[in-house]
Amino acid sequence: MLTLYHGATAVCAAKVRVTLAEKGADYESKPMNLHTGDQFDPAYMKLNPNAVVPTLIHDGKVLIESTLINEYIDDVIPGPALRPDDAYGRARMRLWTKREDTIHDAINTMTASILFRAELMLKPPEERKKRYEKIPDPAKRAKWAQIMEHGVDSPLVDEALARFAKLFRDMEKALADGPWLTGEAFTLADIGQISFFYRLEMLECAGLWREHFPRVTVWFERCKARPSFKTAILDHIPPPAFASYQTHSTPQRERVEARFQQTLARA
Ligand SMILES: N[C@@H](CCC(=O)N[C@@H](CS)C(=O)NCC(=O)O)C(=O)O
User: Fold this and answer.
1) What is the DSSP string of 100-142?
2) Rounded to an integer, what distance in angstroms lies between the CA atom of residue 5 and that of residue 53?
3) Class of domain 2-76
4) pLDDT tens-digit map of 159-183
């Protein structure tokens, strides 16, 4: 029996939903509202002391960290293999999955500076602070505070854009050797990036790769054509979220793209 604690738009949870969908696995769904603070519920924090989603429970065993959960699912759930079957192939796949935490951090920077900040600015200061003061990791709390103050002008946004520039370049190179990041087979390396790319697309940042990285552009369209994209990502996003992303992202698009051009020119 599988139980997944997740958030509708949470990209790390979506990573795990895509893996479960690719396996054709059923699971009990425990949706969490991260905006109203379900992740800080003491009972939930006993399962996931980091106060984040996803958390997977498999026959009473508690698993946290999306990258590790995805490997666990591939180990224990029947269905198509999502990792290369040789040790060298798996090591090459893990070069991609190992990076997911830093890319997630950059995705979070973009989302917080473009969307969360704009939404929170509509609320009174005390309520704004409440959104992040319970986060257990002090570095993460400090990051929120900085983004709330500076928005897309934060130097953290430049750091995030530099990470994307490096990621897109590495992906463009790898995709010369096959349709997927590790070659002929679709693996956890691809799965790990799909929800991140879709988040960037919702933030109207797809121009960052579409302008300069043709293989990455085709790769993402290929990912979106898989049935798992609809069932594990699209179908979970509440319709009003699309409008909210658009409202707050459109005014920032040109500014972010211009900063990215500068990043590419420097790197
Ligand atoms: N490294 C963790 C990161 C999990 C994470 O940060 N999840 C986000 C959603 S994508 C979350 O729950 N955020 C809630 C919060 O920051 O309060 C993983 O991959 O599972």
Assistant:
1) HHHHHHHHHHHHIIIIIHHHHTTS-HHHHHHHHHT-S-HHHHH
2) 6
3) alpha beta
4) 999 999 999 999 999 999 999 999 9
Q: Whose CA is nearest to atom 11 of ligand 1?
A: 52
With the most atoms of ligand 1 within 8 angstroms of its CB, the residue from 52, 99, 107, 109 to mutate is 52
Start and end residues for every CATH 1.20.1050.10 domain found in the chain? 87-266
CA 32 to ligand 1: nearest atom: 12
The reported pLDDT for the residue numbered 104 is: 98
Distance from Cα 184 to the centre of ligand 1, integer Å: 30
Ligand 1 closest atom vs CA 140: 16
Q: Which residues line ligand 1 (CB under 6 A)?
A: 7, 10-12, 34, 39, 51-54, 65-67, 101, 104, 135
Q: Under CATH, which architecture does the 87-266 domain have? A: Up-down Bundle (1.20)
- Tell me the C-alpha distance between 67 and 209, whole Å: 24
The pTM of this model reads 0.96
CA distance 34 to 241: 14
- From residue 260, alpha-carbon distances to 4, 50, 122, 264, 266 in Å are 36, 31, 28, 6, 10
Domain(s) of CATH 3.40.30.10: residues in the chain? 2-76
Q: Which atom of ligand 1 is nearest to the CA of 131?
A: 17
